[in-house]
Amino acid sequence: MGFRDDFVWGGASASYQVEGAAAEDGRGPSVWDMFCREPGRILDGSSGDTACDHYHLYQKDVNLMKEIDYKAYRFSIAWPRIIPGGDGKLNEKGLDFYDRLLDSLAAADITPYATLFHWDYPYALFRRGGWLNPDSPKWFADYVSVVAKRLGDRLPYIFTYNEPQCFIGLSYDNTEHAPGIHFPIWDTLHMLHHALLGHGLAVQALRSIAPKTQIGYAPTGSAHYPATDSAADREAARKAYFAVEERPFWSVSVWSDPIFLGRYPEELLKKYGQYMPPIGQDDMKIISEKLDFLGQNIYNGSPVRSDGKGGYEYPKRKTGYAFTAAKWPVTPEALYWGPKFLQERYGMPLYITENGLSCQDTVSVDGKVHDPARIDFLRRYLRELRRASEDGVDIRGYFHWCVTDNFEWAKGYTDRFGMVYCDFETQERILKDSAYWYRDIIRSNGKDL
Ligand code: GCO
């Protein structure tokens, strides 16, 4: 019992958060490059211009991953590095970088899991209307075809998008993320539909160009769990997990039902149907092209209880509850109930594509980085994930977010999520205590949790 023998242990990153080299070798600007220039958008006034300089230091990073004994590395490919204008002319030098990275991973025997889009949307396409433009699904699929042609035979696993909840919801509804412009619901619903269509067209392109590649998707969402073990609370949590609440773009079902069930959730149509764009005859078929697995990013959830009337409510968290440096609640149950509910509804093999926390990590006087809170957090969460696996949930792997500390979007460099400490001025890396702990967990395949 425990995790399956071939369980995939790894860590994750995203291009804009680690690569740096923002203006090098022909990379075009993304919405994030522009957003970071606007005063007040990023907490510490920083940008991903240099980040962890992974573009140049990737070999060093792969060596560190090897030291931790990673089986796999989840990274993202920067669209504007491959096609600087978003659509049209290719940039060979950008593709060369991923070639080098893949060579280095292969030499270290670390399996690549590539995400095709982790938010660095080409600025040139934004100027043409971005996800509102009816051609936007095709732009994405064309970019994916380029990647598939050049790198497909070396990419055994691919995720189309990372967290569409964020690149539409946090970017165009809330304005915390680039480009940070609020649009009304009738426009954001158009973006939703176009993004889903882009995913479907990309899957079709991948199937024809890289038939051996297995394809998934990596959305997110708060993973609700029952406040008690009663049947009523379980049912309440299940309902809440897939509900379409006031902020529809944060919902799990809005982004996953169309893909895995071929339809939009009833509740979305009931609440916002009047604002939905026209849906073409084949659209839902394209959107629900069969995938091989579901990736889910799970950081936390909320306890849910029955309201006694067939509905649900969120009880107040206990006073003084545990939270991380980013002030996110510590809720290990999310890694049991999230996978369980997802499997029930979508019946897909599952990867946890991101999980982790930010801590106030510093280099101690002994030159090391002691992060006991990360070890405790991960132990608690991974025990819950193991319990889900033992209860029959088909969990294939786990990617810790993230390898090195990096550019944490609107928080700049003020949050440290890595297992590897990064000094952003000198680019020195130090394995934190949690990295050594994780290595031992990997070696025991989770038995020592
Ligand atoms: C996300 C992204 C990551 C973040 C991480 C910590 O989930 O928001 O995928 O890029 O850095 O989640 O916030």
UniProtKB/TrEMBL annotation:
GO CC terms, sorted: cytosol
Superkingdom of source: Bacteria
UniProt cross-references to InterPro entries, sorted A to Z: GH, GH_1_N_CS, Glyco_hydro_1, Glyco_hydro_1_AS, Glyco_hydro_1_beta-glucosidase
PROSITE patterns cross-referenced by the UniProt entry: GLYCOSYL_HYDROL_F1_1, GLYCOSYL_HYDROL_F1_2
Gene Ontology biological-process entries: cellulose catabolic process
Enzyme class: hydrolase
Reactions accelerated catalytically: Hydrolysis of terminal, non-reducing beta-D-glucosyl residues with release of beta-D-glucose
UniProt-recorded Gene Ontology molecular function terms: beta-glucosidase activity
Family per record: Belongs to the glycosyl hydrolase 1 family.
PANTHER family named among the record's database cross-references: GLYCOSYL HYDROLASE (PTHR10353), LP05116P (PTHR10353:SF36)
Name the UniProt record assigns to this protein: Beta-glucosidase
Organism: Treponema primitia (strain ATCC BAA-887 / DSM 12427 / ZAS-2)
